[in-house]
Amino acid sequence: MQTHELRYFISAARLLNFTKAASECGVSQxxxxxxxxxxxxxxxxxLFYRRQGRIELTALGRRLLPxxxxxxxxxxxxxxxxxxxxEENTTxxxxxxxxxxxxxxxxxxxxxxxxxxxxxxxSIQEVDAxxxxxxxxxxxxxxxxxxxxxxxxxxxxxPLFNDGFEVAxxxxxxxxxxxxxxxxxxxxxxxxxxxxxxxxxxFEATQGRWPFKFRMIYASExxxxxxxxxxxxxxxxxxxGSIKCLPGIVRKRLxxxxxxxxxGLVSLRGRQLSMVGQSFLRLAATHRWTIARTP
Length: 295
Known about the structure:
The structure is a single chain. The chain has two domains: 3-87, Orthogonal Bundle (Arc Repressor Mutant, subunit A), CATH 1.10.10.10; 92-295, D-Maltodextrin-Binding Protein, domain 2 (3-Layer(aba) Sandwich), CATH 3.40.190.290. Helix content is 39%, strand content 26%. The chain is built from nine helices and twelve strands. Strands 3, 4, 5, 6, 7, 10, 11 and 12 form an eight-stranded mixed sheet that branches. Strands 1-2 form a two-stranded antiparallel sheet. It has a two-stranded parallel sheet with strand order 8-9. α5 (104-116) links the parallel β3 (92-98) and β4.
C-alpha cells in the first residue's frame, strides 16, 4: 500500500469523480484509476461502484475512508514534525498576535530574543483573536498571543496577564462624573463598535444573553479610528484596560457585571517548536507584564 494510492482514493471518495480527482492530484485519470485498482487488489475488495458516468463508495470504501484519512493526517503531522526538527537549527519564528493589545511589551521581548538570535527571521501577523487560533491550527504560525474564553483541547494556553474591560468616554460626558459605569447605563448611548474586541465573547461565555442592544452609530476594525471618534465626542466604546487612550478620552471601570479577559500564549500540544520559538516562549513567560493604565 503506497501513500499516493491513499491520496488518490481519498480525493476520489470526496469528489466521487475519477477525472476531477486525477486533476486535483495532478496525475492522469488512467494513472489514478490503476493506482486505485491496485489498492483494491491488495485489500481484497472493491472500494467503488463504477456506474455509467459516476462512482459511489462501496461498504468497504465507506468503512476504510475515515481510517485512510486518519493515516493521511498522521503522515502530514510527521512531515510537519520533520520540518520543525530541521528548523531547530535555523532561526525563524512565525508569530501571530491579537490586534487588541499594544506592541510595547512584545517589542521588548523581541529585543531580548534578537540578542540570542541576531540573524533570526521573524514574521508577525496581527489579527483578531479567533484568527490567531485558526492560523495556529493550520500551522501558519508557530506561536500565538491571544485572548479568548474557549481554547481547543489541542492548544496549550499559558496566561500572561489579565485585565478588565472599561468604558471609554469623551471628556465631559455625563458618565464621567462617577467612579464606575454600569453596563445598563450604556443603553441608548451612542456606541462605537470595536469589531475585533473580545468583550462580546467573554460576556456571552460568563453571562449568557445580552440584556439590551447597543445603539451603534459607528463600527471599525481600527483602534485609532474608534479613539479619534470618541475624543471628538461621537460616542463611547468598551475597551480593555490595557489599551492606551488618546488625550480627550476618559475611561471608567465597567461593572454590573465586571468582565475580564486573559491574554496568553498559545501553541499546539505535542508540536516541537523551533529553537527561536522555544526561546520566545521562555522570554514571554518570564517577562513582567506590567500594564500601565492611562487615566
